[in-house]
Write a structure and sequence with these properties.
The chain has two domains: 214 residues, P-loop containing nucleotide triphosphate hydrolases (Rossmann fold, 3-Layer(aba) Sandwich); 63 residues. It has 290 residues and is α/β, with parallel strands linked by helices. The protein has eleven helices and 14 strands. Helix content is 34%, strand content 29%.
Amino acid sequence: MKLEVQQITKRYSNKTALQDFSAVFESGIYGLLGPNGAGKSTLIKIIVNLLRPTAGRVTLDDKEVSSLKAEYRRRIGYLPQSVGMYKNFSGRDMMLFFAALKGIEDRKEALKQVDELLEMVNLTKDAGRKVGQYSGGMRQRLGIAQALLGSPDILIFDEPTAGLDPKERIRFKNIISELAIDKIILLATHIVSDVEQVANHILLLKEGKLISNLAAGQQVEQMHGKVWTVETTKEQYEKLVLSYKISNVANLGDTLKLRILSDEQPCPEAVLITPTLDDLYIYYFGEVGI
């Protein structure tokens, strides 16, 4: 199975949201990292065939997805940033509604899948409650569950951990890790920790352009020789922060311990340390991905 995005460009009247984006996706977990406004949601809508590109095409096993129609929709599981739900439906009834939309016509099979997925996302006890009574995190978990209906080959999640507490974030990561053996999973997020431990491959998107597309380990390797630490005074910190990207500041009382991103040694006392994906994110995007 191969999902290919070929030279996708999306222009609006006064803005280019995506520019000449190309990537090939096969079985595994792909993290699409970038700040808000980078073009992640636009790309996802084009991949799931909800939005037409200005140029380029998306193919599944060398067939254009726009020509596959219902067959392609059955193979896609999609969690948008906001899932429309009927507040007066119970969680189970909402899932059964989604199952019908996905073409799961057999009632027994639909109930079986719904109950299994509600248990998977830890909503079994709340399945009879109205969706309008759910917290934001509970609705997000229901959204994750609906994306898994029908056991789709391709799973696409747009900011999937929004509203989830730390325990449920871990549960989500475990779910997708188990599913990734024979599926294409794409996680679009600005939160580094969402993809750091689970993604096999990481794509960096900035201002609509793909700036890096490498295996997860290779992405971090780019930062070797560029991450430094130094213990310094508050006065010296005020000078360093004007010239360098600083990914972390630890207050030690009379001094500060800094984590500095720089192609060259920022000061004589600075020593190299092992980089992380957080360092990579700040190096490219200039903001903390949390």
